[in-house]
Amino acid sequence: MANPSLLILPGDGIGPEVMAEVRKIIDWFGAKRGLVFDVSEDLVGGAAYDVHGVPLSDETMAKAQEADAVLLGAVGGPKYDKLDFSVKPERGLLRLRKEMDLFSNLRPAQCFDALADFSSLKKDIIAGLDIMIVRELTSGVYFGEPRGIFTEGNERVGINTQRYTESEIARVARSAFELARRRGNKVCSMEKANVMESGILWREVVQEVHDKEYPDVELSHMYADNGAMQLVRWPKQFDVIVTDNLFGDVLSDCAAMLTGSLGMLPSASLGAPMANGRPKALYEPVHGSAPDIAGQGKANPIACVLSFAMALRYSFDQGNDADRLEKAVEKVLADGVRTADLMQNAGETPVSTSQMGDAIIAA
Ligand code: ATP
Ligand code: MG
Which UniProt keyword terms apply here (predicted)? Predict the structure, then answer.
């Protein structure tokens, strides 16, 4: 059988720096675990614009459609700020998401014990926290028509439309239930069914999908405003949260910050199943290209490493190896290894990006 294929798009800024550490880890898995990937590397974002005049070439797009999984670093940087909107680095990422139809965005918020003091929140609120937010990514108010700024009488009016079809709700709900079965078997769906028609349909369809296909999973519903409050008050009550594009944007950023640095946060964006039964998938750290620290060997590679762990789990069915990698990260943190973004006390000496990568491999 052919090796599983992985397309790596390091991108811009700290993207290539953190990705270099993941490459070392991939080599380790090949050498020590016999887990060999067919890896190819290509350009995205400003790096692609510099060579091809576009932030994502058609050839790269085609490769992404073929790959079992795509792992992306980060795109963008001040050098590209003045470019026309149509060729901005971010458009490369948007094209990937759109053409791969990645409708389910997974953002874990997990607290590593060693960093439980790092957050400004009370330790008992976040210690041991492990939740997953599933955000619908391709529909809703971000895309619904009509949209625009129009003139009505003698004033302007800005219009967006929240629109969800039954099938759009059902597919992201399935993705949340599938995930819950591999975790704590609990889903909380959030909307505003008290004021929004799309919210009423959302609640109905999630419940129907549950009753027909996932009766074994515990399902609850919450209004999103209460959900936001509960997320901050006692986040450990949740396992998987599923919500729409707009609420998911807000709630996942909120959940992410429960646990500390941007340099720690991975994400996955999943689409429909491919011929091998696994979903189309793009994995990337939540952070951006961090131009302020790019090229200095300071970036924390953990978000990118944990994104690869998600790829092991969700695209390559290597849950044990994903656990192995996450445990290594946990151990390194427990040993007090810290990149600069995780420093708490003056006088501590941070490790470099590549020292952090080496420490994870050693662990
Ligand atoms: P973008 O527009 O690409 O999202 P941004 O400036 O909004 O860029 P980031 O690039 O994520 O956001 O950076 C925000 C801040 O977090 C910066 O100060 C950056 O140095 C810091 N940061 C982000 N990622 C990391 C990382 N992996 N390691 C250390 N610091 C990071
Ligand atoms: Mg940003």
Answer: Amino-acid biosynthesis, Branched-chain amino acid biosynthesis, Cytoplasm, Leucine biosynthesis, Magnesium, Manganese, Metal-binding, NAD, Oxidoreductase
